[in-house]
Task: structure prediction
Amino acid sequence: MQTIKFRTEYTPVRENFTLNPEKPVLLMGSCFADNISQRMQFCRWNACNPFGVLFNPLSIARVLRMSLSGLYVDIPDSIFGNEGIFHSWLFDSKKSGSSADEVLDRIAESFSTFDSIIKEAEALFITFGTSWCYFLNEDDYVVANCHKQPQALFTRRRIGIEEIADTWLPLLEELHNRYPLLKVIFTVSPVRHLKDGFEGNARSKAVLTLAIEKLCERYDFCRYFPAYEIVTDDLRDYRFYARDLVHPSDTAVEYIWDVFQETYLDSVGKEKLKAGEKETKRSLHRNIIGNR
Result:
């Protein structure tokens, strides 16, 4: 009897390099980067996403460029106050605070963390979330987050493949010159941006994947991990989404995590992560017992 298949499963393709969980990694980009960094940290992998959620390629590039150059002159001008809370157009609300100085301190701490880790990091994971960008009308300034400000302040535009490539190609070259052993692994977030509509979300993700293809074709230290395709083509079922039907569920993230390990880790690395996960669970158990 012929076996009936009900889904097309993604087969992990082993990379030609191996990541070592004893060496740190950095992550930047959309909230999917947060999900994976938390999963790594749970296994005692020194993984960090210091800049918080950055959705679009231009904002991610701007922050990375500032880190490489050490020039932060744009940051003070990016800070504004609203109803007693201060925000930066360059970062999400986790960097917001009760004063401009508090915001500056939080941002400075993020850059300090990034700069200290990247010197030893084995890989930098960059997750693009959307190619739709918001620009401040007054100076055509791309923002990382609108911070719930009036839509009349912004012009919304979908950036193109060439615009992303023109921004990232020289930046990647500079990054490689500075850290020649660093691997850059791009992903596209599987989080659906349905405020753009079905068509808008699909075209936005297409722009991102094609732009990343262009970057990876140019530089052999760049790779693409198909998190987006795993969710949309392999899992492709609403039971693998959270209740908002936008974000991947915990089960989906765990599935992607398994594929990630098969792609980038050898048997020794997997065992290290298992040991780290067990230690975290024991620590959590001891804390629960101790608080009773």
User: Anything to note?
Assistant: The longest strand covers residues 123-128. Residues 267-290 form the longest helix (24 residues). The mean pLDDT is 91.
